[in-house]
Amino acid sequence: MNAANTSLQPAYLRGAGGTPFGRHEGCGALDLMDLAAAQAIDASGLARHEIDGVLCGYATTLPHLMLSTLVCERLALRPHYAHGLQLGGASGAAMLMAARELVRSGRCRNVLVLGGENRLTGQSRDSSIQTLAQVGDADFEVPNGASVPAYYALMASQYMHRTGVTSADLAEFAVLMRAHAAQHPGAHLRTPITVQEVLDSKPIARPLSLLDCCPISDGAMALVVSAEPADQGAVAMAGAGQAHRHQHLTAMEDVLQCGAAEAAQQAFAEAGLSAGDMDYLGIYDSFTITLVMLLEEIGFASRGGAAQRLRAGDFARTGALPLNTHGGLLSFGHCGVAGGMAHVVEAWRQMTGQAGDRQLRRPRHAFIHADGGVMSSHVSLILSHEDRP
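Now predict its structure.
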């Protein structure tokens, strides 16, 4: 840890909870967040009056000007600090980083971080596509009718051309995420798939097919960041970092340098650890290309080599670096802010021995990474289990 930060008190993940992802007919964003928050607070062992901070992610189905206050009212919370945050898919990790700073500075002792929405049942498919497409440049991208898959497909074409990554390589990750999701009762998509089925699935925006893309889901996730560890184990937020190099695809300078490595290096430096120390990965995977690019830029695989590591078994549940053992966005599902938060909830459960049938040998150090926009905003987190040798 940096010398300048040694006087700051530690921050721990004390509790986590969430709903299954998929279809929740009749449940609004507040309903889903309420369910997830109740689980997280219960897991933390705290009473509601002990929650003195609340950070809430945006919901496209509930675009309220004061969403964090609305959530507090619904949950019967009266915190000293409340804030809403919007950073696309990086929102969950960014909120956790902010909660960590609130706790470390002494401003708060117990911060509830939550996100959720009924993105599948609460809006039409066309409305969802139109809303998400607004991450594009208003003058040069949106008027041309581009969608989020189209933005990622353009980026994928360039990356694949420069690195030699193939569509079959990408398909391997869709298959792995589905295999992991099959072990989780709360996952949206659990039916096993093959590489050939991925390659043969409906083209969405070449080179990406339907099974290269995450599903739209309903769901919510919540975590409690605290000055005190959980009874289940002391999972400290040991390092964090961010990088923001562009917003729009047309402003991306280099597809090989999106900012992920920069954010990761900040987190590693603060934690006093390296990529080689990690024994669990929770990496954002809105598309198969997202996952491959992040693994390779951060340094968990060589350029063009992520699929080779996968085929060697390294990212499997029994491998050296288990990856997204809940199934990731690609199969567990994606409901906005909570989609990225699910990676952290799964890591916490694995690190505290609460993953049930999915339980691995309890990891000591977990690396989490989320991105928002089109590889635009990056947040890296490092979780360390202080009770383990």
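The chain has a mean pLDDT of 95.
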